[in-house]
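Renewal narrative, Specific Aim 1. Our central claim is that a sequence can be written position by position from structural information alone. The example that follows is taken directly from our test logs and has not been curated for this report. It begins with the structure tokens describing the chain, in the order in which they were read.
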């Protein structure tokens, strides 16, 4: 399914409430998966963790432990897909490999390993920039085990010789300040990075719904790119952390705004920005956007949690609340200007993903 959209309109709360009431009110819709008590318990459990992460000492200690990866004692095929090749497949669907020749590439949110720098440089990129305030020890033995498997796999998947692949034993340390640049800062600090109109490609994989400053995420993507450059962001709008164990995957949206901030402000968890809000931000900064919706939540889950949503989320279009995962392919127009010269009326194409 392909549709062209300018803006998703705010939800008619009366009609949404009526539909939710029909599902929830008579108790005949099956077993309920939403529990206010379970929500309260999880919020109370998360608050001490968030308070601890406000302390510099705790943040420093935490940075030495895996946050976004795992213990790679044995790197499986699933690990290679999750931590490297799924993102590459996403990139090359919209940014062909030959276009990497001499390119400057920026990744937002690599986590504890910068494994994608290896294939990107091997396939021709001139430089790789990684930005993440929670970046772990990317030179650790654990990270290097992942790098080793990625380096071994590359010649099997792409037409390249093993001798052009950066050595996993010394990557990324041996390349820092030459072809690899690491910024352990938040995306909100993007003006200080010196990357304005230098990048050919900006991308992230599973990060857009966790960044603390989502407006800066959209604006930095635009500002980093040369005119004609492309930003590709796969965004998972689902729960993270303890909220994954709830039967209704949208339970985390029911937490009051202030309580959510108090429990999550310093931990890099979900920012609860919904699909239509992120699409609007990309449009507002001037991008021409194509969106591929990869996965949806069940409408029953949306309607079950709807009566408990904070006001900001309750006026979200139901169609937006249903989106569980989407790829945002954002092109900076070739005649783009920074500042006030941006496109004031961008049009976006929305494509429904069809699994192979």
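The sequence written for that structure reads:
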């Amino acid at each position: 399914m392909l549709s062209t959209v300018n803006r998703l309109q705010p939800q008619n709360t009366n009609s949404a409430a009526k539909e939710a009431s029909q599902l929830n009110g008579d108790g005949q819709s099956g077993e309920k998966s939403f529990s206010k008590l379970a929500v309260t318990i999880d919020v109370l459990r998360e608050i001490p963790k968030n308070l601890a992460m406000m302390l510099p000492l705790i943040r420093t200690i935490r940075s030495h432990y895996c946050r976004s990866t795992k213990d790679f004692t044995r790197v499986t095929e699933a690990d290679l897909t999750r931590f490297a090749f799924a993102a590459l497949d996403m990139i090359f669907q919209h940014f062909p490999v030959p276009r990497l020749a001499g390119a400057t590439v920026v990744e937002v949110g690599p986590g504890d390993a910068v494994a994608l720098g290896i294939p990107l440089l091997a396939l021709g990129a001139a430089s790789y920039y990684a930005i993440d305030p929670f970046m772990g020890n990317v030179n650790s033995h654990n990270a290097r085990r992942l790098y080793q498997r990625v380096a071994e796999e590359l010649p099997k998947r792409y037409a390249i010789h093993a001798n052009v692949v950066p050595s996993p034993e010394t990557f990324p340390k041996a390349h820092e300040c030459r072809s690899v640049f690491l910024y352990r800062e938040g995306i909100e600090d993007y003006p200080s990075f010196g990357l304005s109109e230098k990048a050919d490609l900006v991308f992230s994989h599973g990060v857009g719904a966790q960044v603390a400053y989502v407006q800066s995420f959209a604006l930095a993507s635009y500002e980093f790119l040369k005119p004609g450059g492309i930003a590709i962001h796969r965004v998972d709008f689902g729960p993270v952390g303890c909220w994954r164990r709830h039967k209704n995957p949208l339970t985390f949206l029911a937490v009051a705004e202030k309580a959510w901030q108090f429990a999550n402000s310093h931990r890099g968890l979900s920012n609860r920005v919904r699909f239509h809000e992120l699409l609007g931000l990309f449009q507002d900064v001037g991008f021409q956007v194509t969106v591929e919706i990869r996965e949806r939540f069940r409408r029953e889950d949306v309607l079950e949690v709807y009566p408990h949503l904070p006001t900001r989320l309750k006026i979200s279009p139901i169609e937006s609340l249903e989106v569980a995962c989407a790829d945002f392919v954002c092109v900076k127009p070739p005649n783009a200007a920074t500042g006030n010269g941006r496109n004031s009326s961008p049009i976006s194409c929305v494509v429904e993903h069809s699994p192979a």
